[in-house]
Amino acid sequence: MKLALTVVVVLAGILLVQNNKNDEETNSTKDDCSGDRFCSFDELTEEYEEGQDWDIIKSTEGDGRWLVSAIHGGGIEETTSSLTKAVAGSSYPFYTFNGRLSSNNFSNLHITSTRFDEPQALEMVADAKHHIAFHGASGDEPKTMIGGLDKELKEIVWRHLDENGFAVSQAPEDIDGDHPDNFVNKTKTERGVQLEITRAQRKAFYKNGDISYASRNDSSNETEDFKKYVKAIQAAMKEFE
């Protein structure tokens, strides 16, 4: 009898430990922010101030079926906000969230795309049918990696970039933008196109490869590659329409 009771107690202890471990794993998965400092926009605003540490630049002008965006703009993923504004111009609505810290913008202000919930951004993307989102990726090879759930638009963008001499590939799984919760896919059609542009390609957009704040904010530093890239994306958008 004592032996049976002992076995029961031991088994109960093992189950309790296992349940606690499962709870920890569930919480860890639930709270996973892909290594970001903040899991939501509200958390970010508790530490950083608009107009000083970050800002939002947006426009609702143009064809309201579209949105062009850079949720990691400014110093977070350099050149993405410049591309967004250039592609959109006055023809398409655009949204950029820009890091303005003197350094470490990515480590402090980056919110992963599946958790980016800034209210103005969510409102704009929900009103759009078609969406092109610019992001920056690491990489010493000039290349654009294409993701997102809009297969038809992806093919058109891919072709236009390729025909203009830009290297293009399918985005790897960790940045392929295929999750339904990804900001790029929160449109009326529940799909969009995410362009992950390597650092080498982004540096090619500016004279001497200088993508510092001062360089990016002087349009005279934009190279022919920058202008050609912008025109390729615009041509793809017009064809898709």
List the defining traits of the structure above:
241 residues; seven-stranded mixed beta sheet; 9 helices; disordered N terminus
Topology:
Blueprint lengths: L1 H29 L10 H5 L8 E6 L6 E9 L5 H9 L5 E6 L5 H5 L9 H9 L2 E8 L6 E4 L3 H13 L4 E3 L22 E6 H5 L9 H4 L7 H17 L1
Parallel strand pairs: 2-3, 2-4, 4-7, 5-6
Antiparallel strand pairs: 1-3, 5-7
Number of helices: 9
Write down the overall mean pLDDT.
Answer: 90
Largest sheet: 7 strands, mixed
Terminal-residue CA separation: 79 Å
Work out the helicity level.
Answer: 25-40%
Runs with pLDDT <50, length 5+?
2-30
Fraction in beta strands: 15-25%
Structure characterization notes:
This protein has 241 residues and is an alpha/beta fold. Helix content is 40%, strand content 17%. It is built from 9 helices and 7 strands; from the N terminus they run ααββαβααββαββααα. The protein has a 7-stranded mixed sheet with strand order 1-3-2-4-7-5-6, sandwiched between helices. Helix 6 links the parallel strand 5 (144-147) and strand 6. It is globular, with a radius of gyration of 22 Å. The N and C termini lie far apart (79 Å). 37% of the residues are buried.
Give a brief outline of the structure:
This protein has 241 residues and is of the alpha/beta class.
